[in-house]
DNA sequence: TAACAATATGACGAATTTGTGAAAAAAGTT
DNA sequence: AACTTTTTTCACAAATTCGTCATATTGTTA
């Protein structure tokens, strides 16, 4: 689970981050200002955003409103010190999915986060990289050419991905071995050549136009 | 908006029904027992179910649990007289999306209902999905082929539904586990394979033409 | 162009992943 | 409580992928 926390109180912020991590939330981003919350939310995907009601530089309610206006569909949980019905209603009207009144217990926060992320219908995030006539899907390990999907084996995919991420640079065998098999791997250099061959065959790269060999150095995909 | 209210207190029940209608909720069904709530929920579609914590003949928490187990994906709001954190957490853990502590104001109930229905309704969800020779009814959890109805178990249905909602993409085992069993579920990955097998058998997918395996990644239903 | 070094290729067994059926465990019904 | 259905686990079978090796091909340099 990936969470964005917008809380200006340093003590409370640190505490929540600490507790969330302890409870097994993989990734927690923490910002202290409303503007930052807005930017972070739009810049990457979060399962839940925890927004403090009062924030310097853009309060929680208006950040929430703007996010919804912008078409943001992820779950938003509002934190508030106020317990007045009218305020709570205002937060929900602004587009928050839930709120929690301070002070609260971490167990309740976790339960609410779980409930929220469970209900999130956000589409599965897909990272797609274009490469000439190909479309590379980094989450599903698939490669599409002219609408036709081909399936790369794990090794083939890792290699292609590595080469694409370093497009224009020549990767030495040492580096490839390190990045794909790990520095302590127990495989011979020849394995790399073999994998390159399998990948070339699968993508139809007969004349080695797509993945080029740099003799004496390694392999590369040109820019 | 269509709402199911499960509340045994006649006075409160009548009041809520009256107020909801006054606030513009088109359709309100009101039951007074836990078993009835369960049956009504599975029999037709509601935007939100308002479940009282204490109900004769099946309390709110267990009704909620059973509904989720059965693959019910509509929003559930729990009503409770208790304000103890542990009780609230218990309700959320049972699969409720939200709770409200009695006594509450009708404005707050309305705001929460709106927030809940907005969240579950945000993405367009077809009630009946066509899939080749099949017709999938997401409300009644049934699958029809050539007019012949087959019965899927909850798990089988959830899996099929998940795959169909993501037609054309490959779902990794991690994501499947997350979406069907929950990210903190305590089942082995093999359970997924087993469920896939049961589903394939039931829909007559001997050659794995309908549900395809993507080795090293997961499963998919192609577009 | 001969000789050498680096890379490509294809085949084969080992390792990993997925499929399968049976049986245990859990949940739901009567 | 007895019974049925569903879910999960487990052990083994089948399929696929991986890594190595022997050999072929290509490129470089003297």
TrEMBL record, chains A, B:
Give all 4-aspartylphosphate modified positions: 52
Question: Could you tell me which residue ranges the Response regulatory domain spans?
Answer: 2-117
* Ranges of the DNA-binding region feature: 126-223
Presence of the UniProt keyword Cell division in the record: no
Query: What keywords appear on the UniProt entry?
Result: DNA-binding, Phosphoprotein, Transcription, Transcription regulation, Two-component regulatory system
Outline the extent of the OmpR/PhoB-type domain.
126-223
Example GO molecular function term?
phosphorelay response regulator activity
Note the InterPro entries from the entry: CheY-like_superfamily (IPR011006), OmpR/PhoB-type_DNA-bd (IPR001867), Sig_transdc_resp-reg_C-effctor (IPR016032), Sig_transdc_resp-reg_receiver (IPR001789), WalR-like (IPR039420), WH-like_DNA-bd_sf (IPR036388)
Keyword Transcription regulation applies = yes
What are the annotated GO cellular component locations?
cytosol; protein-DNA complex
Q: Which GO terms describe its biological process?
A: regulation of DNA-templated transcription
The name on file for this protein is Response regulator ArlR
The source organism is: Anoxybacillus thermarum
Read off the lineage from the record. Answer: Bacteria, Bacillati, Bacillota, Bacilli, Bacillales
